[in-house]
Amino acid sequence: MKEYLEYKDYKSQKFWEIQVIGNQFTVLYGKIGTDGREQVKTFDSEEKALKEAKKLVTQKIDKGYQRKLEPSATEYKIGAKVDASKSYKFFQDYDVTDGTVLEQLASFITQENCDKVTKIVIGMWGEYDSGPDEALDFIIANKEKFKAVKHFYIGDIESEENEMSWIIQTGYEKFLKEFSNIEKLELRGGNELVLGKFNLPNLKQLRIETGGMSNELLEEIIASIQHSKNLTHLELWLGTEEYGGTVKAETVEKLISGMDLPKLKFLGLMNSDIQDLIVKLFENHPIIDKIETLDFSMGVLTNKGGKSLLANDKLSTLKSLRCVFNFMSDDMIEKLTNKFKNGDFDRSWAEYEEEEDEEDRYYYVEVGE
Amino acid sequence: MEIIHLIIAPKLSRRAMFWKKVLKQNNLRYLHISYLDIIQDNFTLDSGINYVVRLESVGEDFETYKAIVSFSNAKEKINLIEEDVGLISNFKNWYIGWEKLLMKIKNMENDFDLIFINNPQEIAVAFDKKLTQNLLIANNINCPEVLNSSNYDELLVEMKAKKIHQVFIKPSAGSSASGIIALRNNGAKKQIAYSTIKKNNNKYYNSLKIQVYNKPNEIKELFNDMNTNPLQIERWIPKWQFNKMNIDFRVLVINKKVEFIVPRGSRQAITNLHLGNQKLKIEDLNLSEEIIKKIEQAAIKTMTCFPGLHYAGIDILLSKKGKVYVLEVNPFGDMLLKIVNKKQKTTYEQELESLQVFI
Asked: Hey, is the C-beta of A161 within 8 angstroms of any chain B C-beta?
């Protein structure tokens, strides 16, 4: 087991990492950007080490630490030697002085050890009106050089570079056939995104961040995700109608009711303009018994959704219930916080304005633009 | 000759208070006169005394603002009877008045013995973003590319032709992120703008919350209304990120030395600290020494273009690939509260110490 957490506020930027090996765990902690300090603790058994480690993780999360999936990837520079233990990111600057994504990839595959790298990130690929097709085609054409890759992140484009809702994606049918052994897939951007039929038996994590997800895409996921029996983390940002989001509540219902994924621990259905409806679907739903974490963050979650949460006793059996960034009232947040010790109802930068007329209020999802 | 510190600032200026505090701690004599006093010739100075003059920001004081706009002798009548908090300034007339006032202060040299910590003439240049950028570019300092369009439709065409997707539009004489628009263009129908400008009752206000505009007509109108003042339009270069925050740097140079570097982190495109963004610590960012050195060198080189400024806050952008660009020169950009340098001095303490070159 390994967990990496970060804490950020006005005063401090800290990380905390724990790794359990056998009956021992190592904690590494300190300021972000430093190597940190290390602490090792030994237990009578592996179970005890794991139990204690999990307890510490929960305590840290209670204190405001957040799970970070992984440290960020190294930017690949043309001509640079490849370190097999690192993950690499390919992206182009606005003035392309460091080469296009294709030029960077072409240099990468000539380096020793490139075929041992396990994580590849593709960022900004140039024009606003094109997708990552060239990069994906290149990777497919040189698949031997990418044979060790277990984790692809396509579309790591930051808010300074483009609107998330403007990112053009593409079809992944062929790509996922060629790389059917991957364990993690992260995609950002919903326009023109097609997964088609996929069979990814080793997939552990699927994250799709969009400002607007199409109902068809969700249907594709429902049809194929059952092959991924090893999936532990499923995270879908559904977005808003304004940016092409067409996901219907009944399709989400179909997803959660038909899901047979024995290892699934984390389910995130978030950043949605129908967040209240989605929350309601979970009212005493059996899926809650099978997973550990539910994440409803970043969407338009209002007091209506808050009421469904309050009525849903099953939710207290979860390890963690995340509703960060919401539009609920102080009163509702207090009730939820009292009821769900496992919950996080931080309103973040969303604004609840008491005095406005309920009907006139304009809500927004956290990542729409 | 006797030395007295002369502070020219609005009567209630916080910045003036910080400077006075440091002068007091060092048992130094000072005199505070306001910009209003100068406009109205309502002050007395003695010949036979050496005045070390520090000018402070005129901001946050409506009477001063009003007096400066009137001092411009602008022909158009501006209705300035009551303060309308947050209303966006008439940058054009304000700047004409401000420049005139700075020259009046500069000319006081003819009658008295004045030593300017920051020379009023160079303050005037730094307050004009266009002049500043021209000066920097002429000295081979890296700045974001400038666009020359004079109206909105032309701008969209220019952006397309130059393959520039996103720009910052700033009043050439503005400060504190007032009147700023960050514009993205994605084809004929898709534009989005982030701005500190908020429209209310057909008037424009500075908003502490970034406003989002996504209707092409709305953006065009906003641009046109701002375009009554000289504008500086430049490429919006994606900022380097740390912890999902967009970072830029306020570098305070005092007497040709970099004394403070304050990284500012923001989730938004506009990073000014009063917009709820975060001050960070440079040592937490895990930047290479090479990059920190590049940032410092750019700031120092910038200051060589302003030999009459003893101190200034230089805003520096770091691109995602580690390139450094100078964005702005702020002659009053030294109010960095609760921050000390390596010698444990605040900005004001360090400025006083560095004054040895004058006295």
From this structure: yes
pLDDT of residue A215: 97
- Nearest by CB to residue A32, choosing from B187, B235, B243, is B243
In A, which residues are within 8 Å of B184 by CB distance?
Answer: 162-163, 166
**Do residues B101 and B39 make contact, with C-beta atoms less than 8 angstroms apart?**
yes
- List pLDDT tens digits, range A54-87: 888 888 877 778 776 566 788 999 999 999 988 9
- The gap from C-alpha A307 to its chain's centroid, in whole angstroms, comes to 26
What gap in Å lies between CA A46 and CA A38, rounded to an integer?
A: 20
Q: A312 versus B265: which is more confidently predicted?
A: A312
Dist. CA B102–CA B55, nearest whole Å: 9
The owner of tokens 């691109």 is: B319
Q: Taking CB atoms and an 8 Å limit, are B320 and A93 in contact across chains?
A: yes
Q: Is the pTM of this model over 0.90?
A: no
CA-nearest residue to B321 within chain A is A93
- Predicted confidence at residue A356, as pLDDT, reads 43
pLDDT digits (tens, 9 = 90+) for A268-313: 999 999 999 999 999 999 999 999 999 999 999 999 999 999 999 9
Contact B284 A128 (CB under 8 A): no
* Short-list B273, B347, B337, CA closest to B54: B347
* pLDDT for the residue B348: 96
Cα dihedral A182, A184, A187, A190 sign: positive
Query: What residues pair up with B49 in beta bridges, in sequence order?
Result: B2
- Choose among B192, B238, B278: nearest Cβ to A94: B238
| Cα A78 to Cα A99: distance, rounded to the nearest angstrom | 7
Confidence grade of residue A367 (pLDDT, cut at 50, 70, 90): low
pLDDT at A358 (0 to 100): 41
pLDDT of res. A311: 96
Q: What is the pLDDT of residue B24?
A: 96
**Is A10 within 8 Å of B323 when comparing Cβ atoms?**
no
- Write the burial class of residue A201 (CB in 10 Å: 0-12 exposed, 13-18 middle, 19+ buried): exposed
Q: Which of residues 57-116 of A touch B (CB under 8 A)?
A: 75, 91, 93-94, 97-98
Nearest-by-CA chain A residue for B247: A160
Query: Which chain B residues are within 8 Å of A127, Cβ to Cβ?
Result: 163
Q: Considering only alpha carbons, which residue of chain A is nearest residue B322?
A: A93
Tell me which residue of B50, B89, B88, B64 sits closest to B12, measured CA to CA: B64
CB B277 within 8 A of CB B271: yes
Report the C-alpha gap between B300 and B283 in whole angstroms. 20
Would the pLDDT of A137 be above 50? yes
Nearest neighbour of B321 by CB, restricted to A32, A33, A93 = A93
